[in-house]
Structures are given as C-alpha cells and as structure tokens.
C-alpha cells in the first residue's frame, strides 16, 4: 500500500507536469528555427534581380538594359538604407544588386555608344 500523503502525491504530479512542460518548451524552441525563416528585404531582392537582368539583357534587349540598371541602382541604394534600419538584413544582396546594376548600366551604355558611333 502506498504510504504517501495526498500532498506528497500532488507535489510529485506537479513535478512531473513541470518536466513535461519544460520538455515541450524546449522542443518548441528547437523547432522554431526550422519553422520560421528570416524575412528578406524586398528592395534588396528587386535590386539583385534587376541587376542580373540588366547584365543578361545587354545581349537580348539592349535598350531595356540601361533602364533596368538605373531602377536596380535605385532599389539597391534604398535596400542598403532599409537594411541598416530594420532587422530584415539583406545588405549583402542589396550591394550585389547595386554592383550588378552598375555593371549592366555601364556596359550597356558603352555598347550603345559603340553601336551608334561605329
């Protein structure tokens, strides 16, 4: 026969429940990193995309490339400013988009001038 008092049994049950709750909390903390992903700076993504497209369009659509380069530069500068102020980050992607946009703009303008004056 169990010789424990009612209070002792209640304390044991509470201790078991606390351990279960702590285990659930630990599992939730471990799963949180896999379930949630960090949001990205949209302006950085747009800048990077337009920078890559401005380089690709040098050979496909020559006159669209400088437009994409200018818009990509605008979004790259805005993305870098926003990345410093918010928790979203994306400074690296904004910088890469800025560089790609500048390269696409310069190369496309040089190609247009060579094509016009040659």
The Cα radius of gyration reads: 29 Å
Q: What's the total number of strands?
A: 0
Q: Determine the structural class based on helices, strands and strand pairing.
A: mainly alpha
Oligomeric category: single chain
Largest beta-sheet characterization: none
Strand content: under 5%
- The overall pLDDT, averaged over residues, is 81
**Shape verdict:** rod-shaped
H/I helix tally: 4
Please estimate the helix content.
Answer: over 70%
Low-confidence stretches: none
Intertermini distance: 105 Å
Written as H for each helix and E for each strand, in order along the chain, the element string is HHHH
3D architecture notes:
The chain is mostly helical and 118 residues long. The chain has helices at residues 6-35, 42-60, 64-85, 91-117. It has 4 helices and no strands. The radius of gyration is 29 Å and the shape is rod-shaped. The model has no long low-confidence stretch (mean pLDDT 81).
């Amino acid at each position: 026969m169990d010789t424990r008092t009612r209070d002792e049994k209640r304390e044991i049950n509470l201790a078991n429940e606390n351990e279960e709750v702590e285990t659930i909390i630990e599992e939730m903390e471990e799963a949180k990193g896999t379930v949630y992903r960090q949001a990205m700076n949209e302006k950085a993504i747009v800048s990077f995309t337009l920078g890559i497209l401005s380089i690709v369009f040098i050979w496909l659509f020559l006159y669209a490339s400088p437009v994409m380069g200018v818009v990509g530069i605008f979004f790259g500068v805005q993305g870098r400013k926003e990345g410093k102020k918010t928790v979203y980050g994306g400074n690296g992607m904004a910088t890469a988009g800025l560089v790609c946009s500048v390269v696409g703009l310069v190369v496309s303008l040089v190609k247009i001038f060579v094509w016009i004056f040659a």
